[in-house]
TrEMBL record:
Family matches, as PANTHER family: LACTATE UTILIZATION PROTEIN A (PTHR30296:SF0), UNCHARACTERIZED PROTEIN YKGE (PTHR30296)
GO CC annotation, single: cytosol
The protein, known as: Lactate utilization protein A
A Pfam family annotated for this UniProt entry: CCG
GO MF assignments: oxidoreductase activity
Organism: Gimesia aquarii
UniProt domain Cysteine-rich: residue ranges: 5-85, 130-225
Amino acid sequence: MAPQVGLFIPCYVDQLYPQVGIASLKILEHFGIDVEYPESQTCCGQPMANTGCTNEVVPLAKRFLEIFKSYDAVVCPSGSCVSMVKHHYDEYFSENKEYDELKAKTYELCDYLTSVLEIKTLAGRFPHKVGLHQSCHGLRELRLASSSELVKEPFGPARELLESIEGLEVTQLQRADECCGFGGTFAVAEEAVSCMMGEDRVHDHEQAGTEVLTALDMSCLMHLDGIIRRQKKPIRVMHISEIFAECL
């Protein structure tokens, strides 16, 4: 019997980038997963938590638990939202066994593909130079890739999946894991700094020859895509799930 997965789609993806949710569904179903999208799901509460409105997060955290606790796993195409659930819900649940179980079975999409389904290669062809942006939550909270400041054997399952696709070349950046400057509400509170950081990232991808810019978080890509479009840069932006789905 196929495992039953609850597909958690971040609110900004639902409202602005529904194709990312659809691509995630196609990928999971391609690998034989029984996927459900609970229509009663809401925001995970990360924007409120980031701005100090912790009381407003409580009902959202409890609702998330109630909606997703019965699934074999919860999968989400966003490292930041997964990080919110796995690392920042603890203060809202005191010694709650159901939450501990939920936390252990909540995964970012690429993490689920590689660590649970143990997928190492992807079929299909994508003849482009692809630049992979390592978003901060996925990198330093979920540890989905190695950080440049750590002296250890490098790893990166998402990069390995990309490199397994025929015709795809992953570009080499000068600063492989630098923040894009989005940071959710940081982009509003510190607009100038946020834009300068984003421009630095775009420039790094330009010098590397990136044709398609991808990441595990559409929020980071939304910020970078805004800079790319306004400056009329010749770089296409795609969430990693869209690349995978195009290759199926």
